[in-house]
């Protein structure tokens, strides 16, 4: 149960952060997550919490690295292999050597292997943290790609270096040849296991895909288990589990490219699930960092002011050294890919700037803290020397790197170019839906089918969930059009064509019903008020039936027959009026829809953004018309899926025309294309479910 409570609290922290960040949009999300984690550390479950590295690596880092591997194509890895090796291995090892020598020089009581252990801990970088802190600015593409490629494998480099340093501390000796051999075994072995396991799993998945009717029920669970199985398998052979899951992810990317549009349902579902898992795990990483900080703070308190100031100075010095190594490497590296990333030939000033951005973007995250906590309590039958100091320095470097990036990058980098605003998206979506609704009205003969499709299309606007201020903004136009439409109906009722077709009794009865329609905003009363009105009406209804002895259905039927027998002439007359009302109601529906369609068409032709009130009025009169039709037991029509496909095609056509003529930017068109595609998929799924239940 403790594990369940822990997971629930972490998820609550993620949810809470998503709510909090709406009120503090300028604060980078990682800092909000860390603060939430600090607050969670005061709960009973997380008191005296200490990060378990093995659990963290297996349950969080492994799936994240597997997903990162899936984003990298094999052809790209092959093309960029040299720069990946330089970034993830050469740069990481060079950084570790420089940091180790500085730490050994400053802290003279630390042995060189101990200093190298610290250096290995602070080697891994966190590209996700950089993305989170630069979400509002435009990160240069070359630098962004370099950071992604660097973080893809340097976690494994840091782990191997740490393992090597701990081995030297335990054995008391170092062999260069043995060290290189161990490094190659762990790295190459992990990658090889990942590739072999990846191809085996891909073969299994491919056979299942082509040999079963519903492959997603098997494929997706296999996909979710893959990073854990591969990581555990690689670690059990003494190789790098991180490199193994990255390699497996790359193989799975190859599988996706091979399948292309085959088994799209499996691929779409899998991508959606993995994207959600990735977002949650990336948030949990920073929450765990926040939860771990109070433990580090307790270590700091025990060291005293002089001790902590000394470690703070060492942390700042190490950070400056890492910045210098990264800057010099980016500025001096003559690799072809590096030249492309950092623009080394065309513009020297830009080259220096990009090198600076790359250096400052070397943010360290929870991976560094997990490696620090992985230091054993004892080594070579003795207490691990200066373990608390190493953890404190690693934590300080994490915080310094995050703060420096959060402060400098938003200042140094330009703001992201905004091609469209939220208002532009909403206005274009509204016009798209209204355009499709008009086309449906023109091409669909059955009023009930037309109304059902238009209601579904209008739900794409999301205006039923709109806030109260927006409703008040529309209330004046809404009331005006409601009043205008009511006058339009009355004028139509007294037209020559209607008076010739229907009796005066039918017209008078319909007009009396119409006059009961309140000319007030539908949104004027709260849901609670409308509920009380409903309860009051039901009470009067029940009271009348009790008073007249018509409680049960049998009693009510008997009462109706008795009344019909005693008033045969009146009953026949009322039946005729009912039939006339139904026919007249259908005619009025057609006229009102045509009237509102003309208003909406004129609004779209004049490129007016504010025509939401027309939808409000249409909804109000639809309720009025349905009130009459329900008295005659009108059933909800069955709608063919082809009609929905046609309706969504109208939306596609509108966006395509608006995009090709330059009315909306391509980025906005892409968002709406995706919305239409998702809406169509959902609608067809619901239709299939209904058909399956009715069959």
Could you characterize the architecture of this molecule?
This protein has helices at about 1-20, 30-40, 55-70, 75-80, 80-105, 110-120, 125-135, 140-170, 175-210, 215-235, 240-260, 265-330, 335-340, 350-360, 365-375, 385-410, 420-445, 445-460, 470-495, 495-500, 505-515, 525-545, 555-565, 570-605, 610-630, 640-660, 665-695, and strands spanning about 380, 380-385. With about 700 residues, the chain is mostly helical. A two-stranded antiparallel sheet has the order 1-2. Strand 1 and strand 2 form a beta hairpin. Helix 17 crosses helix 24 (about 570-605). The radius of gyration is 34 Å and the shape is elongated.
Features:
695 residues, mainly alpha, Na+/H+ antiporter like fold, two-stranded antiparallel sheet
What overall form do the CA principal axes indicate?
A: elongated
Number of helices, where a helix is a run of at least 4 consecutive DSSP H or I residues: 27
The residue fraction in helices comes out at over 70%
Per DSSP E runs of 2 or more residues, the count of β-strands stands at 2
Sheet with the most strands, sense and barrel status: 2 strands, antiparallel
Q: What is the name of the CATH class of the largest domain?
A: Mainly Alpha
Please state the second-level CATH architecture of the largest domain.
Answer: Up-down Bundle
Beta percentage is under 5%
In angstroms, what is the radius of gyration?
34 Å
Low-confidence stretches: 464-473
Q: In terms of quaternary structure, what is this? A: single chain
Q: SSE order, as H and E?
A: HHHHHHHHHHHHHHHEEHHHHHHHHHHHH
What is CATH's topology name of the largest domain? Na+/H+ antiporter like fold
Q: Calculate the terminal CA-CA distance, rounded to whole Å.
A: 43 Å
> Could you say how many structural domains there are in total?
3
Category by helix and strand content: mainly alpha
Question: Overall mean pLDDT score?
Answer: 82
């Amino acid at each position: 149960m403790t594990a369940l409570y822990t997971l629930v609290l972490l998820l609550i922290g993620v949810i809470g952060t998503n709510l909090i960040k709406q009120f503090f949009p300028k604060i980078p999300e990682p800092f909000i997550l860390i603060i939430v984690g600090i607050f969670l550390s005061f709960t009973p479950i997380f008191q005296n919490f200490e990060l378990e590295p093995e659990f963290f690596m297996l349950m969080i880092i492994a799936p994240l690295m597997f997903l990162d591997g899936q984003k990298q194509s094999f052809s790209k890895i092959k093309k960029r292999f040299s720069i990946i090796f330089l970034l993830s291995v050469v740069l990481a090892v060079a950084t570790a050597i420089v940091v180790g020598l500085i730490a050994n020089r400053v802290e003279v009581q630390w042995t060189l292997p101990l200093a190298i252990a610290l250096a290995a801990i602070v080697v891994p970088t966190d590209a996700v943290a950089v993305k989170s802190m630069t979400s509002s600015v435009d990160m240069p593409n070359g630098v962004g790609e370099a950071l992604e490629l660097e973080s893809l494998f340097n976690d494994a480099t840091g782990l191997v270096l740490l393992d090597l340093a701990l081995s030297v501390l335990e054995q008391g000796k170092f062999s260069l040849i043995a060290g290189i051999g161990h490094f190659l075994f762990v790295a190459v072995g992990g990658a090889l296991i990942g590739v072999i396991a990846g191809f085996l799993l891909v073969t299994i998945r491919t056979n299942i895909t082509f040999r079963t009717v519903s492959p997603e029920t098997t494929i997706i669970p296999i996909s979710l288990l893959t990073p854990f199985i591969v990581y555990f398998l690689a670690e059990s052979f003494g190789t790098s589990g991180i490199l193994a899951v990255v390699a497996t992810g790359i193989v799975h990317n190859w599988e996706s490219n091979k399948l292309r549009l085959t088994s799209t349902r499996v691929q779409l579902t899998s991508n959606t699930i993995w994207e959600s898992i990735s977002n949650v795990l990336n948030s949990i990483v920073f929450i765990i960092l926040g939860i771990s900080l109070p433990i580090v703070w307790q270590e700091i308190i025990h060291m005293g002011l002089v001790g902590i100031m000394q470690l703070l100075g060492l942390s700042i010095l190490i950070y400056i050294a890492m910045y210098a190594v990264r800057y010099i490497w980016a500025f001096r590296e003559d690799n072809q890919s590096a030249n492309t990333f950092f623009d080394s030939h065309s513009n020297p000033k830009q080259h220096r700037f990009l090198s600076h951005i790359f250096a400052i973007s070397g943010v360290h995250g929870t991976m560094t803290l997990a490696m620090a906590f992985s230091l054993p309590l004892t080594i070579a039958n003795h207490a691990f020397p200066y373990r608390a100091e190493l953890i404190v320095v690693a934590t300080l470097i994490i915080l310094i790197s995050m703060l420096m990036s959060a402060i400098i990058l938003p200042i140094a980098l330009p703001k992201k170019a905004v091609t469209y605003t939220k208002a532009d998206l909403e206005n274009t979506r509204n016009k798209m839906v209204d355009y499709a609704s008009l086309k449906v009205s023109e091409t669909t003969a059955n009023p009930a089918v037309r109304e059902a499709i238009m209601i579904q299309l209008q739900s794409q606007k999301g205006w039923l969930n709109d806030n109260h201020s927006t409703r008040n903004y529309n209330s004046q136009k809404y009331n005006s059009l409601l009043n205008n439409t009511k006058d339009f109906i009355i004028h139509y009722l007294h037209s020559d064509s209607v008076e010739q077709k229907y009796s005066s009794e039918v017209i008078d009865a319909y007009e009396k019903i119409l006059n009961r329609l309140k000319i007030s905003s539908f949104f004027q009363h709260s849901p609670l008020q409308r509920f009380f009105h409903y309860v009051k009406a039901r009470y009067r209804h029940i009271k009348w039936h009790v008073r007249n002895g018509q409680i049960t259905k049998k009693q009510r039927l008997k009462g109706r027959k008795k009344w019909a027998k005693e008033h045969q002439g009146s009953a026949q007359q009322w039946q005729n009026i009912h039939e006339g009302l139904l026919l007249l109601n259908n005619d009025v529906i057609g006229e009102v829809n045509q009237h509102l369609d003309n208003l909406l068409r004129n609004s779209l032709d004049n490129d007016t953004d504010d025509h939401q009130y027309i939808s409000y009025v249409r909804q109000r009169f639809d309720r009025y018309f349905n009130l009459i039709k329900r008295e005659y037991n009108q059933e909800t029509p069955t709608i063919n899926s082809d009609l929905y496909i046609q309706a969504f095609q109208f939306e596609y056509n509108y966006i395509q025309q608006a995009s090709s003529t330059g009315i909306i930017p391509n980025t906005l068109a892409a968002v709406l294309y995706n919305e239409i595609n998702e809406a169509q998929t959902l609608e067809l799924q619901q239709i299939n479910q209904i058909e399956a239940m009715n069959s």
